[in-house]
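tool_log.txt
---
The assistant was asked to compare two proteins side by side. It first ran the structure predictor on the initial sequence, then on the second. Raw inputs and outputs are pasted verbatim so the downstream comparison step can read them without reformatting.
(1)
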Amino acid sequence: MSNVRIGVFGGSGFYSFLDDVRPRVVDTPYGRPSAPLMVGDIDGVGVAFLPRHGTEHQFPPHEINYRANAWAMKELGVTRVIGPCAAGSLRRDIAPGDFVVSDQLVDRTSGRKDTFYDGPVTTHVSFADPYCPELRALAVKHARDQGITVHDGGTVVTVQGPRFSTRAESRWYQDAGWDVINMTQYPEAYLARELEMCYVNIALITDYDVGVEGEIEAVSHAEVLRVFERNNAQLRDLLFALIPAIPEQRSCPCASALRGARVET
């Protein structure tokens, strides 16, 4: 089997996508990941898959062991991470069934373990551009090649969960100019950066968050899963096209994220 260099985190409704796999149980300094990692091969490229919520969706977003999940990927040799996720739309022109490859992120979570660097060496990692520009361009290109309606860029606001937004909160996010809403992008994307792994999200839009007043009802979990399941085939096809196209050599800044980040005396 090829060396594992691509990692995929599965989100709500997306618990497996590789056929011929072998499980890898990885212990980390931060405890067990959400599930054993399933390792397989796509056109000669080693891939590790991990459902971030667990195989039975037993971990709600605020209880996911994000550090263990990211560390396990790194431990297997992963350098590039793809993070498909269910997301709600905050804009009328981003419709359920669309994909969004975000370029910005806003964190509205609280209390999550969101760094590997608790001291004694203070480490400040740049997160100005949360998503790998090289992976973003490839994801958008291959989504368009697959005939998927994809939005190139957009800000995802990550909320604590597990509850959905109030109408007042959703209006606030819309007034701020943010585009989609999700519960898991932070700290997952940032922890990948701290480990110098590239990270790209592929947000599958399942709903209009609290709805469109007078037109569309507020989101329910059942509706989220219904749309996600309907689009799983598209997502799987995209991943099978995208992963072999990812170059082994990296030309992005993600691989050197720790350069100059540490405060040492």
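(2)
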Amino acid sequence: MATRNYEGQKINSSGINKTIDTLTVEEALQININGEPFTVSMRTPGHDQNLVRGLLHSEGVLDDQSFNPDILLKQENDEGVVTILDATIPKEKLGHGYSNSRSLLSVSSCGICGKTELKDLKFIGKAIDRTDKIDMNTIHRLFEKMNEGQFNFIESGGAHAAAAFTLKGDLLSIMEDIGRHNAVDKVIGDLIFKENINKAKVLTVSGRISYEIVIKCFKARIPFLAAVSAPSSLAVDYAKELGITLFAFCRDRRATCYAHPERTFISSKNAKAS
């Protein structure tokens, strides 16, 4: 249930008229770990297990990509929307992120809101050092491909998308959610479940880029990150430090590269995503 219809009043210079609009659903999902509450995420229902698996990876709660925990339905509401999921993870596999339990509400628009303290904003791992290069013509094609798969956005105008591709432009996963970082977590979880995460070289997102999306991209070891809208200053700083080539304002066959432009080139031949 990604969208719902709502009645409204459309007001313009010609008067006031009733309208029925399709809006993107936002519902709370409580995520438990071993039966204990870990965090609450405001998300668009659907692909919830992918969301949980991606979040566990991005937050460093479970660093072992080869281990997929049981993620079981614990509760749903009267409309059939899942409200509680429980992930069973052996204690020896719990990572450092588990001790930083996000006890506050994690809302769809701001990932930092769920952190217990600013000192929790730590990452572990070596910066991405790749010799891969990408054709800017491919970047433009990736957004065309992602746009074609944004079915919820076409309906409601209120959903973000994230997609993962190979370096040649093959689509590996595309997900939508009311939250930008939720869409990214769903993609990462999907890649892990499909054992395709090592094939992912480019991550595209439909909105702006925050530092948190850069970190999620880094945790998935994806070297190229591209967005339709602007990056934050901290996102650019992190991308430079973590070895991620960062593109923003990717629209109308234009883009701005803010980090590691040495990995880009422009060919005379247009590459097409498939």
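---
observation on (2): The radius of gyration is 19 Å. Residues 134-265 form a domain with the Cytidine Deaminase; domain 2 fold (CATH 3.40.140.10).
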